[in-house]
Amino acid sequence: MASVVVAEAKPKVKILATGGTIAGAQASTSDAGYKSGTFSVENLISAVPAMKELAEVSGEQIANIGSQTMNDAVWLKLAKRINQLLATPDVDGIVVTHGTDTMEETAYFLNLVVSSDKPVVLVGSMRPATAISADGPLNLFNGVGVAVDPDARGRGVMVVINDQIFSGRDVTKSHTTSVETFRPLNHGPIGDAYLAKNRWYERPALKHTLNSEFRVDKADTLPRVDIVYSYANAPRDLVDALVAAGAKGIVLAGVGDGNSTDEVIAGLSDAAKKGVVVVRSTKVGSGIVRRNVEVNDDKLGLIAAEELNPSKARILLMLGLMNSSDPKKLQEFFYQY
Ligand code: ASP
Fold it and tell me: At which of 162, 177, 211 does a domain end?
């Protein structure tokens, strides 16, 4: 009797493209100038045929923008689509191609609103697709290599770039142009991604994805939260302008341990008295902003951002405000997420 050989089914990975330099094109390969979001998801997939050895790959175009213009509408569309796809047995993992400018924000947003433990991985590149030694194809291959790895499940939303795997909560962009631009804020990379052979180091300890209480599947908008940058001699005018403009929350990108001038702190405290929720973070790039160190948060009605940098604190505050307006509860979120 002839034996029947059944090919082992490959995991199914969906690539959701949003644009960025990974889909960018230059007019000439020696020209630094380029346009993000030029190539389509089909172009990106066909540029890396080796991905087919890892997975059954298909693609969808969610947007095609430079991530400097990322916005709430695309975030909501992306999150809803990811949750739809991951709820079916037809998708085992997701790779989102994304510009690097706001990748740390989208990764943390998704880390809080994806309701699945299947892998969700963001990849991007620092050099456009047409560049000499473009870094996008390998990052995409490595991203798919993480999305198909059973050990990637339950680690929250990740960023895979330059052979490293970062937690979406902890990752930040640190160099304007180098391919080695992503680094963790406070904890090391959670793994190494090397040609689909991944090495894992960490599991994020705080709440994310399945354990998160933040859901946007029925939301059409997100509350307005803005960031105020601090520096020597900063006046309170920007804080007052944001309150007048209707901000529901303000994040201080403070100096040092989330500090600012007396004027700005007075402006923030006045904002808090009017019901605008104020979170103190820092522009310094790592470390923890704790309550009541040099600023008396208890007295002034402010919240400490803990480990989150200003852009990530903004996201947690936006999502937090959808669930509560109580500063005590919102402070708890900054301990838990
Ligand atoms: N400005 C680009 C973007 O964020 C940069 C990049 O993708 O590397 O879309």
Answer: 211
136 Cβ closer than 6 Å to some ligand 1 atom:
no
Instruction: Choose which residue among 18, 21, 135 to substitute to test ligand 1 binding: the one with the highest number of ligand atoms within 8 A of its C-beta.
Output: 21
Tokens of 10: 């490959």
Residues of the domain holding 172: 12-211
Q: Is residue 216 part of a domain?
A: no
Per-residue pLDDT tens for 299-327?
999 999 999 999 999 999 999 999 999 99
* Active-site entry in 18, 21, 97, 106: 21
**Quick one: which of 248, 241, 259 has its CA closest to 320?**
248
Query: pLDDT by residue (tens digit) across 86-123?
Result: 999 999 999 999 999 999 999 999 999 999 999 999 99
CATH of the domain at 19: 3.40.50.1170
Q: Which SS3 state, helix, strand or coil, does residue 166 take?
A: strand
Question: What local confidence, expressed as pLDDT, does residue 29 receive?
Answer: 83
* Whether the Cβ atoms of residue 57 and residue 15 lie closer than 8 Å to each other: yes
**258 within ligand 1 shell (Cβ under 6 A):** no
Number of domains in the chain: 2
Per-residue model confidence (pLDDT) at position 3: 59
Q: What pLDDT is attached to residue 266?
A: 98
Closest ligand 1 atom to residue 68 Cα is 4
Burial 207-224 (b: 16+ CB within 10 A, else e): bbbeebebbbeebeebbe
Tell me if 217 is assigned to some domain: no
- 57 and 141 in a single domain? The answer is yes
Q: Is the distance from CB of 294 to CB of 262 less than 8 angstroms? A: no
Answer yes or no: is 272 within a domain. yes
Please indicate whether residue 21 is annotated as part of the active site: yes
> Residues 247, 202: one domain?
no
Residues 139, 253 within the same domain: no
Decide: 21 in ligand 1 pocket, CB within 6 A.
yes
With a cut of 70, list the residues of the chain below it in pLDDT. Answer: 1-7
CA–CA distance, 44 with 15 (Å, rounded to integer):
9
Given 180, 211, 242, which residue is the final one in a domain? 211
